[in-house]
């Protein structure tokens, strides 16, 4: 393909201007594009977030009991990803396949106590964040926030 003949700095610039959804599609076309997407910076985005929440699942319509499943809603720029919180490592792997760095003007983080600290640290690897907002409801969550790499951040309850 002729696009791969472009100089590396031009390819990196193209990757920074590409939406996350397009990066997902491009990486599926061939191994060369898969590698290019994973090894380039995703660019600058106004906002992003990681929020955990509970979703009610009704397994039996005839029974009155409902179960709650913990979910993670992750927004990298323009693209939302929703996963069962048990699949947190999948999100970390996906992030590493989509970019080697990303920059946000604002990023929001609201993670339940059950989400491993290692997940949060891995997701933030090679992030540049101008304003990071934490939403904490417990001492455990506050500890997680304090042990992340230093950003300019604000705490909200």
Automatic annotation (TrEMBL):
Stored SUPFAM superfamilies: F-box domain (SSF81383)
Record-given protein name: F-box domain-containing protein
Taxonomic source organism: Pristionchus entomophagus
Pfam families in alphabetical order: F-box (PF00646)
CDD domains: F-box_SF
Highest taxon listed in the record's lineage: Eukaryota
F-box domain location: 1-48
């Amino acid at each position: 393909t002729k696009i791969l003949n472009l100089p590396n700095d031009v390819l990196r610039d193209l990757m920074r201007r590409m939406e996350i959804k397009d990066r997902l599609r491009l990486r599926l076309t061939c191994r060369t594009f898969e590698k290019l997407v994973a090894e380039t910076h995703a660019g600058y985005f106004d906002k992003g977030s990681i929020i955990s929440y509970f979703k009610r699942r009704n397994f039996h319509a005839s029974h009155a009991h409902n179960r709650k499943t913990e979910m993670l809603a992750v927004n990298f720029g323009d693209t939302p990803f929703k996963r069962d919180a048990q699949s947190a490592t999948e999100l970390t792997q996906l992030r590493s396949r989509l970019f080697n760095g990303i920059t946000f003007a604002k990023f929001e983080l609201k993670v339940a106590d059950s989400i491993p600290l290692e997940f949060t640290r891995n997701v933030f690897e090679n992030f540049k964040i101008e304003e990071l907002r934490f939403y904490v409801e417990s001492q455990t969550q506050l500890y997680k926030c304090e042990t992340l790499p230093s950003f300019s951040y604000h705490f909200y309850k």
